[in-house]
Amino acid sequence: AARSALTYHFSENGRNAADITSKEGSQETLISLAGMIAGYFLLKYVDGMESQRFVWGVFFFLTVLHMYSNFKAVRSLVLNTLNEDRLEYVWDRFTSGRSPGKVPTPEEYAEYELSFPRYFVDTIKNTWGKIRIEIVVGCPFTCLFDDDDNWDHTVVDPINETFFINLSHNARSNVAKIHVSLRGGLTEEDRLRAFVHAQAIKHTAFEYLKEKRRKLDKEGISDIVAEANKFYEEDGTHKTSAWSRFFRQIKKAGWDVSKVYIRDQGYRADICDQVDMDE
């Protein structure tokens, strides 16, 4: 999967992916042969050296050069596919970034992801001292009923009922779970919308817990779900819902929405809207 994504990155929207794959194989063979020849002569040269410092110096120099070359190669990559980390970052920027209502481009995210200090600090800051909230996509429909009160706080897809979401928290642990149950026959856009809605609930929960003395009890979960349901409501400023603006912005920014790479347990619920029974 990673190799195909890199090939697609260097191709012209996938049109010449086969040519790139064949050229990559030829270049890899040539570089490997050149490396073997250079390594052979270098080994013969250092084999007669009495100074161990020189040998170790050559070793560390080549190691650093190898790591630096890989780093420069990775920095040149700009992937426009959406996975969980990218979607979370893009959604956070859309809702509470420096320019709310706008999403970063794939180039801007690549620059952020490879800026190690910022990426590392943000990762620690978003998890330190907080209740950990996990999003479980494609879970069995029965997960929505783990608690008798869970169904009362379940979000049903208001557009075409392709997913069901609820938030549950065990008071004895520091982990809350957002279960996302999907119906069969849904599209990639439906999967994307389900995950983003779950991400909206997660973001709302973190904002809710910033207030002192607030807990993820039944009342708190009810307030969080009610606030996150505004995801599809039109506001007076834009006359469109947050989802419509977000989906339009990610396509405008250059993200590929035709395939979404989200961890999915693979369960699908087939629910009959109406059952006709013969008397």
How would you describe this protein?
This protein is an alpha/beta fold. About 50% of the residues lie in helices and about 15% in strands. The strands form two sheets. Strands 2, 3, 4, 5 and 7 form a five-stranded mixed β-sheet that branches. A hairpin with a 5-residue loop joins strand 4 and strand 5. Helix 4 packs across helix 7 and helix 7 packs across helix 8. The longest helix is centred in the N-terminal third of the chain and has 31 residues. The termini are far apart. The model has no long low-confidence stretch (mean pLDDT about 80).
Provide a short characterization of the protein structure.
The chain is α/β, with parallel strands linked by helices.
Tag the structure with descriptive keywords.
alpha/beta, 13% strand, 279 residues
**What is the mean predicted local confidence, pLDDT?**
78
In quaternary terms, these chains amount to single chain
Radius of gyration from the alpha-carbon trace, in angstroms: 25 Å
User: What summary fits the major beta sheet?
Assistant: 5 strands, mixed
SS strand fraction: 5-15%
Quick one: how many beta strands?
A: 7
- Helix count from the secondary structure assignment: 9
Structural class: alpha/beta
SSE string, helices as H and strands as E: HHHEHHHEEEEHHHEE
Q: What is the terminal-to-terminal distance?
A: 53 Å
| Unreliable sequence segments | none
Which of globular, elongated, flat, extended, rod-shaped describes the shape? elongated
Q: How helical, in percent, are the residues?
A: 40-55%
